[in-house]
UniProtKB/TrEMBL annotation:
Organism: Pollutimonas bauzanensis
EC supergroup of this enzyme: oxidoreductase
Family per similarity comment: Belongs to the nitroreductase family.
Ranges for domain Nitroreductase: 11-167
Protein name according to UniProt: Putative NAD(P)H nitroreductase
InterPro entries for the chain: NAD(P)H_nitroreductase, Nitroreductase, Nitroreductase-like, YdjA-like
Source organism phylogeny: Bacteria, Pseudomonadati, Pseudomonadota, Betaproteobacteria, Burkholderiales
């Protein structure tokens, strides 16, 4: 049975727990290229991505955990162990940042962030269409400057927007429970 692309969109679900295999180079290129189709006011191209794979993921785990502790944020030993166990299996993380481009004052900051959000949504859908699971997380020290600066995104020039984990779902997700859209929609006629 073929599923129309629009129906396929409705089957996307996030999968936090993913393992190898992750996307190969050509699939990864498709996922990243999908981000380039996001709407982008002023063609600012504010999206920035850092690929984290292999040993880099273990290093990121150390960086995030030490950064969270150094910032005095709570991190229970159980949560730390769970984070390491989670990342141990993840084959690919993509760190996401929004370039602020202070010189351009015409387009508000929130529109750059929205463009990056739209880019990430395209990546989530591309990963799904390629048969992978993906999960957007703002854990792992996303709001700790020491962590995001070590990833190359200083707080002055960027807004760090988290990570995408992409790979093969450890467990096939069941169908998502989604709300009926009617409760979120009104019709405005101006009359
Ligand atoms: C910007 C952003 C950050 C998120 N950060 C987290 C996070 O740190 N931890 C978490 O459990 N879910 C986080 N989520 C939610 C998950 O990515 C996911 O959307 C949620 O588990 C629901 O799954 P669904 O996408 O299948 O509806 C975040 C979502 C967004 C949009």
């Amino acid at each position: 049975m073929t599923v129309a692309p629009v129906d396929y969109l409705l089957t996307r679900r996030s999968s936090k727990f993913v393992q190898a295999p992750g996307p190969d180079e050509s699939q990864l290129a498709q996922i990243l290229q999908a981000a380039m189709s996001a709407p982008d006011h002023g063609r600012l191209q504010p999206w920035r991505f850092a690929l984290i794979r292999g040993q880099g993921i273990a290093r990121l785990a150390d960086l995030a955990i030490s950064g969270i502790k150094a910032a005095g944020l709570p991190l229970a030993p159980e949560k730390e162990a769970n984070t390491r166990r989670w990342l141990d299996r993840v084959p690919l993380l993509i760190a996401i940042a929004c370039k602020l481009d202070h010189a351009n004052t015409k387009i508000p900051e929130q529109e750059r962030m929205l463009a990056v959000g739209a880019a990430v949504m395209n990546m989530l859908n591309a990963a799904h269409m390629l048969g992978y699971g993906a999960f957007w997380s703002t854990g792992l020290g996303s709001y700790v400057d020491e962590v995001t600066e070590a990833l190359g995104f200083d707080a002055l020039d960027y807004r760090f927007m988290g990570y995408l984990a992409i790979g093969t779902p450890v467990q096939a997700p069941g169908p998502a429970q989604r709300p009926d859209f009617h409760q979120f929609v009104t019709e405005w006629t101006g009359a």
